[in-house]
Amino acid sequence: VRYRTAAFGSTLGLGLASLTALGLATLSGILLMLHYVPSVERAHSSVEDLLSVVPFGWLVRNLHRWSAHAAVLFALLHLLRTFLWGSYRGSHRRVWLLGVGLLLVTLATSYSGYLLPWDQDAYWTVTVGTSLAGYLPLGGDWLKGVLLGGQEVAQPALTRFFLLHVAALPALGLLLLGLHLFRLRRVGGLARPDDAKGPSEALVPASPSLLDRELALVLLVTVALLGVSIAFHATLGPPPDVVRPDNPPKAPWFLVGVQEMVSYSATAGGVVFPGLLLLVLFTLPWLEGPGANDGAPLRRRGSRVAVPAAVLVTAGAAVSAVLWWGDPQQGIASWINPASLSALAAVATALAATLCWRTRLVAFQSLLAGLLAALAVFTATGWFWRGPDWSLVYHPGPGAADTRVDSRGGGAAPEREGP
Amino acid sequence: MNVTRRTFVTWASRGLAGLCAGGGALGAARFARPLQVEDLGARVSLGPLSALPPGTRIHLPEADVHLFHEAGGLYAISGKCTHLGCSLLLEPDGFACPCHGARFDLEGQPRSGPAPRPLVWLRLSVDLRGEAWLHLDQPVRPGTRAAS
User: Fold this and answer.
1) Prediction pTM value
2) Is the pLDDT of residue A127 over 90?
3) Of the residues A175, A316, A357, B40, which has the fewest C-beta atoms closer than 10 A?
């Protein structure tokens, strides 16, 4: 292989880190299946058994939870790295496409696993998620019915989510993973600039130059995740109360941005914004048109200015919109809200970039950067600054109810914080 | 147009394969749909009407329905948010959704937040013996009250 391939800075090792975490999640998942019972009556108690009586059950469950989170985190960082390093163009277009598919399967697998412990979070996360599916313009009702197997979250839904989580999605993921790696190999390994020269292009033997480093990374990720699993316990809430969600119930961190956006409007924030983001993600290399790979972060002059500018402008627009609206309000129309405004800001910066540099490449790169920045702002808002009744709080955590921002003018109802 | 035997067979077999795949996919899509089960629990007894005096405000947890008896009469509102299906919390002046912050007044009209529609009102009836019934499968126009 070329020396570039073995150099840590070319990839930051994020793809392999994600793969390692996925492997750990698979192994621990297989172990969990020995004791887990996918039935409404037994699911919660079988997870309790894992935590209390099964030897090392707590460790296996913690490892499963944390390695699943790590797999999603590393996959997202891997996508960001590939994006900023500009390594998705030309012959690598299909590798990118398969990678985005793989990210979606990883997210879906993680989400479907959320229902299995059958606790409060499980019940309400899936109630909301499947209701959101009903907002899809085409086949939404069909998808909702197929996921739930009925009208509400009950045994058929648990059966179906279990099937998706342990069989259908992992099988699909394995297929995509195989193709992702196969395509990468077929196009000659890592993306590199057409004009690459110098010592980084020297050929070195794969073993030990590359393999030893990869092995070290796998071991490092494994040890780190084991350490986290020993130190931190994955939560298991009480069995679901089907008429009273927690207040507020928070989606898993990788979906809390969507939760924040649907609190403005289910259609604009839950369908249009994510749909636009996915469309741009999937088609980015084709939208950009022909272009060579960069091989290093933001090597192009235009990108170097436009991408940070798009991030700043869109994130700024998202932050000001969230602060302007404060608590969820009946918008002027459901179309004018922080999600749609920041999408507009991203499109506007992309247009401005087009005028400045006159290339599609820079334009679409800054469009995606802007959309991702807005999503990051909404994720942070939902995670850190939303308190009871999904109202904005400046100081999250215990006592958050006392410091809620009151943009509605005296609408807070402290008397409800009783029993 | 020049169709050789070879291209004909190629396209015919591709078409056939497509038809089979399409038919299979359609069948699978229908197979995966939920069973439509006759809901026998669609009618819930509320006990004698006399036990629900004006001023009554109760929550029926099994059905997640809020029952009000006010000057205008008796009415029942579903406690599921019309936005994304979370259960609403009853406050003195209306309903609040903990999941996404939608708010409704006591008659289920959206006041703020992302809810697209008013809450669902359900039909109430009183039989000849004076027993009140709630019909979970029969939504009515918001504002429809049962006379008391």
Assistant:
1) 0.88
2) yes
3) B40
